[in-house]
From TrEMBL:
Protein name: DNA-binding FadR family transcriptional regulator
UniProt keyword annotations, A-Z: DNA-binding, Transcription, Transcription regulation
Pfam family, one: GntR
GO molecular function annotation: DNA binding; DNA-binding transcription factor activity
SMART domains: FCD, HTH_GNTR
Gene3D superfamilies: GntR ligand-binding domain-like, Winged helix-like DNA-binding domain superfamily/Winged helix DNA-binding domain
InterPro entries: GntR_C (IPR011711), TF_FadR/GntR_C (IPR008920), Tscrpt_reg_HTH_GntR (IPR000524), WH-like_DNA-bd_sf (IPR036388), WH_DNA-bd_sf (IPR036390)
Source organism: Actinopolymorpha pittospori
Lineage, opening ranks: Bacteria, Bacillati, Actinomycetota, Actinomycetes, Propionibacteriales
């Protein structure tokens, strides 16, 4: 038996590639578990063992995700899921975008286009269990008396919507984009806000409309989120 082989048949995995794979695994762990900002990750030894890599490779992977703004490392405390709004990248973009006046019509038009696409995918791909989870989050959003908790559940609701699409690229970019919508829209004095009570109650109705699987209901879902600023005609094309 000939035990020899061509060098091209078997290629070693470079350290750089192993670090990238480890970073990708950590990123998937955070996204698939929908871990909110502030969540503390398992200890370094436990993570390294679970991933099957050395602690040095893990540190490099964590450092790369920290540079991207996904993780925050606190010396002596641990590694945490970062809040995008606290990252240097977000703050730099926020400063750049904040130099101009936010046009409410432009902002809401982009929101309507974005939400139409998300709702269409969720309506097509959601399993009954996915919709049950969304409804549970929507109920928690309404029942809490803590404004900060309501905001957290609102973020969780939209993160869960993105997860249901099954499109991981959309999950990543969508999480970032939704935070921008929140930072530049709901905190901008020039953009009128829906009444808080209706904004919260509307999410349960959105879930009921998703259960209908009727694409004709998507416009009503958009209106629930964006009106009283927009009418049905406003959320379509401008002509």
């Amino acid at each position: 038996m000939n035990d020899s082989f061509q060098s091209s048949e078997l290629q070693g995995v470079s350290r750089t590639r192993l670090t990238d794979q480890t970073a990708a695994a950590l990123r998937e762990y955070i996204l698939s578990n929908n871990l909110p900002p502030g969540t503390r990750l398992p200890s370094e030894p436990k993570l390294a063992a679970a991933l099957g890599v050395s602690r040095n490779v893990l540190r490099q992977a964590v450092a790369s995700l920290e540079a991207l703004g996904m993780l925050r490392v606190t010396q002596g405390s641990g590694t945490y899921v970062a809040d995008l709004a606290d990252t240097e990248v977000f703050q730099q973009i926020a400063a750049w975008m904040g130099t101009g006046i936010l046009n409410e019509e432009d902002y809401l038009e982009v929101r309507a286009i974005w939400e139409r696409g998300i709702y269409a995918l969720v309506m097509d791909r959601a399993r009954p269990a996915d919709l049950d989870r969304l409804d549970k989050i929507a109920v928690a959003m309404v029942e809490t008396d803590d404004p900060d908790e309501a905001v957290a559940r609102h973020q969780e609701f939209h993160d869960a919507l993105l997860q249901v699409t099954g499109n991981q690229f959309l999950v990543t970019t969508g999480t970032i984009l939704h935070r921008f919508f929140w930072e530049f829209g709901y905190r901008d004095a020039l953009v009128r806000k829906p009444p808080v009570a209706r904004l919260l109650d509307g999410h349960r109705l959105i879930v009921r409309l998703l259960r209908s699987r009727d694409p004709g209901n998507i416009q009503e879902m958009i209106d629930l989120h964006l009106s009283p600023h927009l009418s049905a005609d406003d959320t379509g094309h401008r002509g």
